[in-house]
Write a structure and sequence with these properties.
By secondary structure, the chain is α+β, with helices and mostly antiparallel strands. It is built from eight helices and ten strands. The strands form two sheets. Strands 1, 2, 3, 4, 5 and 10 form a six-stranded mixed sheet that branches. Helix 7 runs antiparallel to helix 8. The protein is elongated, with a radius of gyration of 23 Å. The protein starts with a strand and ends with a strand.
């Protein structure tokens, strides 16, 4: 088979078939390479786009990168519906089957250990945003009559904002404690840039939770209950995802542990 090997994930053999019309990166169907009872899911992609030099250039092209990321995630999502995949980093490319097998051989212990730990589990993401409007609503209306009035209004605004931030921090801390006690594991990520958010507000909690599939409905209900009593705050739930945040060793925030080096393996 010609072409480089773009690898999405490693998993154990699964019985359910992927969708027949599923395509991945470069509009190529996902294929499977079996090695010592593990499966690497990959697509054969053209060297013209995925060899080292053109790939480096493509990774600077936001439109190309976005399209590739969507195709990559589409395959991961399809795998998550039928098995527990260990996702590899975007743009993990190998020269041929032999190079791919060499990687699987080198990382076999890590793959098996991690797949055992993640089996039957999915990742849920929870973000909490502070809505700035409540603080703004506390600001006194009208033009200040004097410099003293102006300073008084500023103090009131500042106090209102401080109360909002304190309430948000307490809410986020309590919610994270509740969800962490329910989940098998959790990760705190850096707050999301406000420019990347889908709605208003400042991100004060950006966390991932590892939950058994069978407990997912109850986990979602926990988050939904928190949404009902959060004035001035917005709670966002995403998932279920492949367990991206939990593929490193316990206690790490790593994305792909020992194997997820990304780029090309020649």
């Amino acid at each position: 088979m010609s072409g480089l090997r773009y690898v999405y994930a490693v998993c154990r053999p699964f019985r359910s078939a992927l969708q027949t019309q599923l395509t991945g990166v470069a509009a190529q169907p996902p294929r499977q390479l079996t090695h010592h009872g593990l499966i690497a899911v990959y697509s054969a992609v053209p060297e013209a786009d995925f060899a080292e030099e053109p790939l480096r250039a493509h990774l600077e092209d936001l439109d190309w990168l976005s399209e590739t990321a969507r195709a990559h995630q589409g395959v991961i999502d399809a795998l998550t519906a039928v098995t527990t995949p260990l996702p590899l980093r975007l743009a993990t490319v190998f020269r041929d089957d032999s190079a791919l097998r060499t990687m699987m051989e080198a990382c076999e212990e890590y793959f098996r250990r991690t797949l055992d730990r993640l089996a039957g589990r999915v990742e849920w993401g929870v973000k909490v945003y502070v809505d700035p409007r409540p603080a703004a609503a506390e600001a006194p209306a009208g033009k200040p009559a004097s410099g003293r009035d102006y300073l008084r209004q500023r103090r009131m605004q500042t106090r209102g904002q401080e109360r909002t931030w304190q309430a948000a921090a307490e809410f986020a801390e309590n919610l994270h404690a509740t969800l962490s006690s329910f989940a098998e594991d959790s990760r705190l990520h850096h707050p999301q840039n406000s420019a990347l958010a889908d709605g208003p507000g400042q991100n004060v909690l950006n966390a991932a939770y590892l939950v058994p599939r069978g407990d997912s409905e109850e986990f979602v209900e926990l988050v939904d209950r928190a949404k009902d009593d959060t004035p001035g705050m917005r709670v966002e739930l995403t998932g279920p995802w492949a367990a991206y945040s939990f593929t490193g060793e316990e206690g790490e925030e790593g994305e792909e542990g020992e194997a997820g080096t990304g780029g090309e393996e020649r």
